[in-house]
Write a structure and sequence with these properties.
Elements lengths: L12 E4 L3 H11 L3 E8 L4 H6 L5 E9 L2 E9 L18 E5 L2 H10 L9 E4 L4 E7 L5 E6 L15
Parallel strand pairs: 1-4, 5-8
Antiparallel strand pairs: 2-3, 3-4, 6-7, 7-8
Length: 161
Amino acid sequence: MSSTDPIQYISFVALMVSDIDISRRFYIEALGFEPISHLVVTGRSPTAVELGLDELRTEGLFLQRDGMRIQLQQQDRPPHCRLPEIRKQLGLSHFGIRVENLDAALDRVRAFGGNVPEGHRHKNEQYQSQVARIEDPDGVRMELLQMPGDPTNMPGNPIHS
């Protein structure tokens, strides 16, 4: 980062959730995230203005694991105010999580309200890997990857600048 770069830090990825308590339990107990901050914003926020509301209550729970930070966000919107369906939006496709034991990880996902769709598991003999697509209790997609080697290394060929 240069001294003229106005970006200080990529802070987090926000996930809209339907029930912050259910999502908290899933992300902490099933996936091992740790809570780091909690925020409640009420009144005329940028989202309230965007939705044409005088006020809106938004609750955010910030979690972190392995350097990744996410925000679970729940908004108390009147029934007539709906954000666009996440499936119709461009943006988050899924996020990846390396696991040591895919079967054990899938058991935990199911135990804490996640979904493991049928047919979303794949083995790759070349990389000695297994991948499963899962969903959190609200349908946010994730990829669990079991693969030998350092879990902090990214799959694929390294890019050297």
